[in-house]
Each structure stands twice: as C-alpha cells, then as structure tokens.
C-alpha cells in the first residue's frame, strides 16, 4: 500500500513555492531613435502579468532619463509578448528636461525611487 501511495504522489504536480513568483530580470537594451525618442527592450521570466514587464521598461526609462540629465519622460507605447516562458517588452518614451505635455508623463526621480523600493533593476 505504501508503495502505491508513493507512486501516486510522484504524479501530483509540484506545489508552487515563493521563488516561483519572484521575477527574474534578464536585461535591458536601450536604443536612441531620434533626439529625445528612446526605445527600451526588456526581457524577464516569472512575470505575473504584462504589467510587470511594463514596470520594468518604465524603470529603465526613468533611470535613462536621469543619466541623460533630464527629469521627465512621456510614455509613447509599450508592447508586451510572452513566448517560451520569456516575457519581452518593447517600450518607447520621450525624455525631456521639463514636464512634457500629455497624460502619461513620469517624474524620473520619483519613478526611480519607486523602482529601487520594489527591487526592479534599471539601466
């Protein structure tokens, strides 16, 4: 009987553990498209949703904005795809020294501080 129980236990799916839900950040590629227009390609595994990927790209954009000596960015678009367990994001932002027009603007210093608090890597 014990042998049968062990055989059935081997068929049960593994119970998820906490590390199954901790995102693994696989890298950021930055490409200056034109003047103040910048593209960020990010990759990660264990994302819980596309929002995790978008947040990773936003953190990259915010840090890049500060590196370039600017204080603000405006989100243009983010495309997210998942294939083979790898989530990829392709995001475009404009960067500027003053608050740009639009509703999807970010204060780079505030966003970077939030990313540090959440443990999300930056450029």
Structure description:
By secondary structure, the protein is of the alpha+beta class. Helices cover 30% and strands 37% of the residues. The chain has helices at 2-9, 50-67, 108-118, and strands spanning 24-34, 37-45, 72-83, 86-96, 105-107. It has a five-stranded antiparallel sheet. Strand 3 (72-83) and strand 4 (86-96) form a beta hairpin. The radius of gyration is 19 Å and the shape is elongated. It starts with a helix and ends in a 5-residue tail after the last helix.
Q: Can you tag this structure with a few keywords?
A:
123 residues; 37% strand; five-stranded antiparallel sheet; 30% helix; alpha+beta
Number of strands: 5
Strand order of the largest sheet: 1-2-4-3-5
Q: What Rg, in angstroms, do the CA atoms define?
A: 19 Å
Approximately how much beta-strand content do the residues carry? 35-45%
Taken in chain order, the helices and strands follow as HEEHEEEH
For the termini, the CA-CA separation is 57 Å
Uncertain segments are none
Tell me, rounded to a whole number, the average pLDDT.
90
Main beta-sheet annotation: 5 strands, antiparallel
How is the quaternary structure best described? single chain
The helix tally amounts to 3
Helix content: 25-40%
Structural category is alpha+beta
Report the principal-axis shape: elongated
Give the gist of this structure.
The termini are far apart. Strands 1-2-4-3-5 form a five-stranded antiparallel β-sheet.
Write the layout of secondary structure elements.
Blueprint: H1 2-9, E1 24-34, E2 37-45, H2 50-67, E3 72-83, E4 86-96, E5 105-107, H3 108-118
Helix pairs in contact: 2-3
